[in-house]
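All the exercises in this workshop are built on plain-text protein records. A learned vocabulary of local backbone shapes supplies the integers on the structure line. Once this layout is familiar, the rest of the handout is easier to follow. An example says more than a description, so a record of this kind follows:
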Amino acid sequence: MQSIALGAKRATSRYRWVICGLLFFATVINYMDRQILGLLAPVLQHDVGWSQVQYGRIVMTFSAFYAVGLLCFGRLADWLGTRVSYAIAMFVWSIAAMLHATVGSVMGFAAVRALLGIGESGNFPAAIKATAEWFPSRERALATGIFNSGANIGAVFAPAIIPAIAVGYGWRAAFVVIGAAGLVWLVFWFAIYREPDSVTQDGDLDDRAHQTRIGTAVDTKTPAPGFGTLIKTREAWAFIIGKFLTDPVWWFYLFWLPKWLNESRGMDMQHIGMPLVCIYALTTVGSIGGGWISSAMIRRGSSVNVARKTAMLICACCVLPIAFVSQVENLWAAVAIVGLAAAAHQGWSANLFTTASDLFPRRAVGAVVGLGGMAGSLGGVLFSEVIGQVLQRTGHYWVLFAIGALAYLVALAIMHLLTPRMSAVRLKS
């Protein structure tokens, strides 16, 4: 009997990492679908004839509806559970990605980007909730870093695959092929994923003991708190402000780097792929490395507060050199600086996401991530308009890179003022 129990324990131990793999591949698909527009922007600008401001507003439309979707999917994940809410999100954004092939105007692209934003907003609330349910705190930042690195892998695969499809078969085919990948993922999701209550979790008692030590509630049967309750807490505002100030910088990298390489470095569609592959390959190291730093510190006895903030401070400092990237003449030196900043963002993001599950009980994690994600998207909306106007009037990117360089230190300072000790939040039932 003891050997059977031990075998079951080992099986469930592997199972949580299988779940992490599913979250990873979903995030890969999420970012490939999201990045197609930025990669094809030079071609589409010629075919559709949009201006810098119009392109900025198409990006802004995605950001606005992504914000609304995050608020809804955050609650939906807490209400319906991870399995169903994730499936709904994947189906909606995959269909929306494929619908890009059917439009050919500025308004048409704005409409399908809106639907894509709603669908893609479900990825991170559901993924962070799944991580909070299946991983103890000492592993959570690492698990988040692993699945969050899917954003970077998607960003690496996208410039390697999408331009080739567009050149060989046309830009419409690129949207269809990449969008269909999400429907394939759904088959594996329904076949593999189960909610935590249906599978015995390895280390569950240890997880509960660990969460008791840091004060995190583990009762998943208590109803999820409302948004009104959450926004009264300083801890929620720390997460919201952290996302609001730093998410727009990542979106700038995602949607505008291809145009920066094209306009400032003179690179065309056939040559733009390799610099982007190098940049986003570095972000994979940053995502996993940033999560590993804080997880390793906790295992060695550091408090959650010290571990998360130290990792975030390191990442914030690594972003600073990008303020001077416009003055760097050598292409590959500039690529290295941008790659370091993008990698630091992903390390920052892995730890920032984990603070939501550190501070709030599992029944509230989806809603908190939704609130923070909505704030980040609204920041992206505002920054997209700023970017479009700056480039339309000046054609220079250096101001935008300088803003991105300082955003993380400012965000960390505000977060520390709001949560100096990162004590777990006690919410009313």
